[in-house]
Structure to design on (442 residues):
């Protein structure tokens, strides 16, 4: 009898997981459809490169404020109503984006979406509710896999809509709004409330305060985990943001070539988070996953930084110059292009090899750290602590492009990747000493 219960408890309940995974995927389709277009959307209304960067930081900054509030609120009133409110905000933001005819309205659309953007934090809390300590990392990893699938399909859908609509950006925004509306319908009719599953009534707490974030940092294990989460997101988020400029500078690769690398990375993340991470967590534990993620991401970033400046065999400086200068969003960004001499395969092969440890580390770290965080708090704190975690991620997402962009601009293309790798290497040393291995179970 005991053996049967133990065996069942080690298996993820996919029947309960399916609704939240589908909802997250649909949500992410809306987000990933619009993200690649935002710079051009802003350029249409006269934004320069700095203003485009500020627009990109608006969503995560607003999410930094909104997600912890809604995460704590989900501990009090339930996951389902908070998820619906956040999805309604996202839907309104996309509708406004489609109707926008000025730069201020673009900013307003991102502010609305960001303030209500607790979709993922609340979905993670749902996963924490319906999993146990043995299956939680696998469940959170599947959320990450839904991310990967969304970011593979989203750009493909955006490309198709642009092709069918004659490059109509508003059509893409309304398509994103459609997927957001679909996620609302799915949540309303398909997702049950999970807050009360095995959990008593949560004590009343203030919805959120920044003091609570500093208090979380002051808790020995949780504080270090939040620092690791923040640092890895700055490192990996900056890597994602600046990768296109890096490949342009070092290898002479245009948007289409670099997009194919992103699709490859997305497929690898799906494999890691959808299949491997659950197995690795059960075999080796979350602490092992964190150490693996920190070390491989550091190695991947350092390898990326040392990519030789050898343009790809099909590189044409004139063609790439025309492509870059033809996009208003990049006219004020000064990125030097390689000369056509010395073209070859070494550069592209090198960066492909470097991408695998980078994407592996980026793929395992977030679910593993979040799993450790949820296992370090009581049941009635899970929504709140995941909201705090999401807040730190949002802050990192706002800082990453500014940090990497400044280093790229002032010190050269390899420097931000070297800096990110060095920071993670130091944190790996700290983590090996400060994150204790779990005590063996009898």
């Amino acid at each position: 009898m005991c053996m049967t219960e133990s065996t069942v408890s080690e298996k993820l309940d996919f029947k309960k997981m399916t609704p939240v995974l589908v909802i997250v995927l649909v949500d992410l389709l809306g987000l990933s459809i619009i993200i690649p277009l935002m710079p051009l959307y802003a350029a249409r209304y006269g934004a320069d490169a700095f203003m485009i960067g500020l627009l990109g930081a608006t969503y995560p900054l607003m999410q930094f404020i909104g997600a912890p509030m809604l995460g704590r609120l989900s501990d009090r009133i339930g996951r389902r109503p908070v998820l619906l409110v956040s999805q309604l905000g996202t839907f309104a933001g996309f509708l406004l984006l489609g109707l926008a005819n000025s730069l201020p309205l673009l900013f307003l659309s991102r502010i609305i979406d960001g303030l209500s953007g607790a979709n993922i934090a609340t979905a993670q809390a749902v996963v924490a509710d319906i999993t146990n300590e043995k299956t939680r990392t696998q469940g959170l990893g599947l959320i990450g896999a839904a991310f990967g699938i969304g970011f593979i399909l989203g750009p493909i859908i955006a490309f198709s809509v642009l092709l069918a609509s004659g490059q109509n950006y508003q059509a893409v925004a309304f398509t994103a709004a459609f997927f957001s509306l679909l996620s609302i319908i799915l949540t309303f009719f398909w997702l049950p409330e999970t807050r009360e599953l095995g959990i008593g009534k949560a004590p009343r707490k203030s919805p959120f305060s920044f003091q609570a974030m500093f208090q979380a940092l002051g808790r020995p294990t949780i504080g270090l985990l939040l620092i690791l989460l923040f640092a890895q997101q700055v490192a990996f988020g900056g890597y994602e943001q600046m990768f296109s400029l890096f490949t342009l500078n070092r290898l002479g690769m245009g948007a289409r070539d670099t997009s194919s690398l992103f699709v490859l990375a997305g497929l690898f993340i799906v494999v890691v988070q959808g299949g491997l991470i659950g197995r690795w967590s059960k075999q080796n534990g979350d602490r092992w996953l964190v150490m693996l993620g920190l070390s491989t991401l550091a190695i991947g970033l350092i390898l990326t930084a040392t990519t030789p400046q050898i343009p790809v065999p099909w590189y044409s400086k004139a063609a790439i110059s025309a492509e870059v200068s033809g996009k208003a969003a990049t006219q004020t960004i000064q990125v030097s292009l390689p000369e056509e001499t010395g073209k070859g395969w070494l550069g592209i092969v090198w960066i492909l090899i470097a991408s695998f440890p980078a994407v592996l580390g980026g793929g395992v770290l977030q679910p593993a750290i979040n799993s450790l965080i949820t296992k370090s708090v009581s049941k009635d704190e899970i929504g709140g602590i995941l909201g705090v975690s999401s807040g730190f991620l949002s802050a990192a997402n706002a800082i990453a492009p500014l940090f990497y962009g400044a280093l790229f601009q002032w010190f050269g293309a390899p420097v931000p990747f070297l800096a990110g790798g060095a920071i993670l290497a130091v944190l790996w040393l700290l983590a090996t000493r400060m994150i204790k291995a779990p005590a063996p179970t009898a």
